[in-house]
Write a structure and sequence with these properties.
The protein is an alpha+beta fold and about 725 residues long. It has 15 helices and 37 strands.
């Protein structure tokens, strides 16, 4: 029987898809050998593989730069940031003339100098960054003084990779160049095409000690380059939360070699940046469904995007890309994930009864425009047709043409010669906001205005401006902000409202909510599954006919007790009453570690539950946090911008580059930092990054403030200004 089994395994090894498997036949044929003989044979095989790749694995040491880099999503009990630039890292030679690929993570601290130790070379080489791959988070270095002398690794074709095959993670951080053997961790390939088609997954130990090093097979060939990676987060540190979790990722060397010629064109003065290829659309969402079950139906098309240039429209369903069927939004992301800026895809879409095929050249960034600004605040909760003007910003476009508080905007239109001007009636605030969101500063529009004092109508031409970085003062804002008719059906409303109007309207409250007085005060709540706890504060003057803003407080680490939230709502009590704001205070599970990515779902559930039980203005839902809670606020704002319209932070910086601005999902920011806060410079840099992406940003630096909250009871008036900013988020 033993001989029969040996013969069976021998035949299996001869299968033509992997002739190299013959090398392992002794492991099965010699089934009668002792276990220690097999262990010795495996050890020899691993050593031979590591010995083969060792000359191509270099040690990288950075000097200077920022030691502590914040990370947006952390596992429980992880540190408040990643300490970088304090030890050696790893790289892989990819060109004989002295080019080394490594993980972008190793350079997130913006080092002032980079030194590289090459096996067999006595002196370390000075290196310069010449290229970055932003979609796969890789960095290419050029070693100065090296020309045609370095050994090169052999790449494993992706067609030969198999789930379950042995994989070795290699690093050169704990061993110097004078010692030929680098460190090694043994595992298997546990999945392929991860991180939306870009990475190999392994259970070999992957951590900062070998980021940038190779993942190899038992022949010493390179499967890929080890990097931290995340299916959700972006940036150099994205995926660090998986450190020491048994899950690691590597970018296939075959994919790196495919784009290497482009990266080699870079220099230290003109660094090449490879960007992810973007179509420039958002997809329709449906409550109760996830991206694995929802079809890829286009919700919005960004102005000047690749999609708009090729004529894609909201309502189109993406059915196929490059011959691959697209049945869900997840499949769309999987196919588009590996694509770069400038690549052309063949797209098949369904538009009504028509099936259309077209080629689309992807772009590296969707064109961003500043948010357009008419210069008014609308009267809320008004069922009358049109939009009543509540407040006019001084020196705004509306102010310059003589629009005044009490006037009502009835119609809007744009003159496009030779066609005559046609004005479209406006049903209410949300419709006007939707129309203006797709406009750009500098665009001239015509508005029909009904004057408040005499009810006469005028048609005015107004050129839109950019949203200013100012907040109306308390004396400027009229006391009345609402017509107090939020639950009244708009007059002249269509029986079937457009989908976007339905999404932006006040969410339906549970049946019976109107029949009894809503609970007010400081209230404890749990999620439907009773697995998370949160508190809410509803001001005592709550009126269901007034749409309330929602402020979600994301506490700093260690401040998730009821007493902490009790103290928080008391500092907000009067602003909540004055500006009609409801507070939601979710508690992170971990006391010490703070927030994790998985908890974002429970936070959103809390917002939806409050919206079902109270009258909530979907245009004014804000994520507000301090320290790591501020980082969580950034994450929620960017990833759930269909829900959140504002992000306010205290003493928190963006852990990575901000996502591109989406015109139809406007997001505004209010950044607060003390001038004695160690993160002050990082918060300033965050402001610059957001402005570069054309987001509206208010920045306030508080004198003599360190790592403290902006409690008005301490004599800091910024909390009051923040409340007014929330009150003005539906500006037009």
């Amino acid at each position: 029987m033993r001989k029969q089994l040996s013969l069976l395994f021998f035949c299996f090894a001869w299968r033509p898809w992997h002739l190299g498997s013959l090398i392992f036949c002794p492991l099965v044929i010699l089934s009668s050998a002792r276990a220690d003989d097999l262990d010795e044979l495996q050890e020899k095989t691993i050593k031979a593989a590591v010995r083969k790749i060792a000359p191509c694995v270099v040690q990288i040491e950075t000097q200077g730069g920022t030691e502590l880099v914040a990370t947006g999503q952390r596992m429980p009990f992880a540190p408040a940031g990643i300490r970088l630039g304090t030890g050696p890292t790893t790289g892989l030679i990819v060109h004989a003339d002295g080019y080394v690929i490594s993980s972008a993570f190793n350079f997130a601290n913006k080092p002032q100098s980079i030194l590289v130790a090459v096996p067999g070379h006595k002196e370390r080489y000075v290196a310069e960054i010449i290229a970055n791959d932003q979609t796969r988070m890789l960095t290419l270095l050029k070693l100065i003084g090296v020309n045609g002398k370095l050994p090169l690794p052999v790449a494993v074709p992706k067609s030969e990779m198999r789930i379950g095959q042995t994989a070795l993670a290699i690093g050169r951080t704990l061993t110097g160049p004078d010692r030929p053997m680098p460190s090694v961790s043994v595992g298997i390939i546990s999945a392929l095409h991860r991180i939306w088609g870009k990475a190999i997954q392994t259970d070999a130990k992957v951590s900062p000690t070998n980021y940038g090093g190779p993942l190899i097979d038992l022949y010493g060939r390179v499967l890929g380059v080890l990097v931290p990676a995340s299916p959700r987060a972006e940036g150099e540190t994205a995926g660090f939360e998986w450190y020491d979790s048994g899950i690691g990722f590597a970018i296939p060397l075959e994919d790196i070699n495919r784009v290497l010629p482009k990266m080699l064109q870079g220099t230290a003065k003109e660094v090449v940046t490879l960007k992810r290829g973007l179509l420039g659309v958002t997809l329709q969402q449906k409550q109760g469904q996830d991206e694995y079950s929802m079809p890829a139906i286009i919700a919005t098309v960004s102005p000047a995007s690749a999609a708009e240039k090729r004529g894609l429209k909201p309502g189109d369903t993406i059915k196929e890309i490059d011959g691959k069927s697209i049945d869900s939004q997840a499949q769309l992301r999987q196919v588009l994930g590996p694509k770069y800026d400038g690549e052309t895809i063949t797209l098949k879409i369904q538009r009504g009864q028509k099936e259309i095929q077209l080629d689309v050249k992807l772009e590296g960034a969707v064109a961003s425009y500043p948010q357009p600004f008419l210069g008014i605040l609308p009267m809320r909760d008004d069922p009358e047709p049109g939009v009543e003007v509540r407040y006019v910003y001084p020196n705004s476009p509306a102010d310059k043409v003589g629009i005044r508080a009490g006037d009502r905007i009835m119609k809007i239109g744009r003159e496009v010669p030779p066609a005559p001007l046609r004005l479209q009636p406006i049903a209410g605030r949300d419709q006007l906001m939707d129309m203006l969101e797709t406009a750009v500063p500098g665009l001239e529009l015509s508005f029909e205005i009904k004057r408040g004092e005499n009810k006469k109508t005028e048609t005015l031409k107004i050129t839109l401006a950019e949203v200013p970085d100012t907040v109306p003062t308390k004396t400027q804002l009229p006391e009345k902000a609402s017509a107090k008719k939020a639950l009244t059906r708009p007059k002249g409303a269509n029986p079937v409202r457009p989908q976007r109007d339905q999404e932006n309207a006040h969410p339906p409250r549970k049946q019976g909510a109107d029949d009894k007085k809503a609970e007010t005060g400081f209230l404890k709540r749990t999620t439907a599954a009773a697995d998370h706890t949160y508190w809410i504060y509803v001001p005592e003057n709550y009126d269901p006919n007034i749409a309330h803003a929602v402020l979600v407080w994301l506490h700093p680490p260690g401040k998730n007790k009821e007493k902490d939230f009790d103290n928080f709502w008391q500092s907000w009590q009067f602003p909540c009453e004055d500006y009609h704001i409801i507070l939601i205070c979710p508690a992170a599970e971990s006391e010490r570690g703070g927030w994790t990515q998985s908890e974002s779902e429970f936070v959103q559930e809390a917002v939806r539950t409050v919206s079902e039980n109270y009258t909530v203005d979907r245009r004014r839902i804000i994520a507000h946090g301090m320290d790591q809670g501020g980082e969580m606020a950034f994450a929620l704002g960017f990833r759930s911008r269909g829900l959140f319209r504002g992000v306010a932070t205290t003493g928190a910086a963006l852990p990575s580059n901000p996502r591109d601005k989406v015109a139809t999902q406007p997001l505004s920011f209010f950044l607060i930092v003390g001038d004695k806060d160690p993160l002050r410079d990082a918060v300033k840099e965050t402001k610059a990054k957001l402005l570069e992406k054309k987001y509206p940003v208010i920045y306030r630096e508080i004198p003599n403030l360190g790592r403290q909250y902006i409690d008005g009871r301490l004599g800091i008036d910024t909390l009051e200004e923040l409340a007014r900013w929330i009150d003005s988020l539906d500006r037009l």
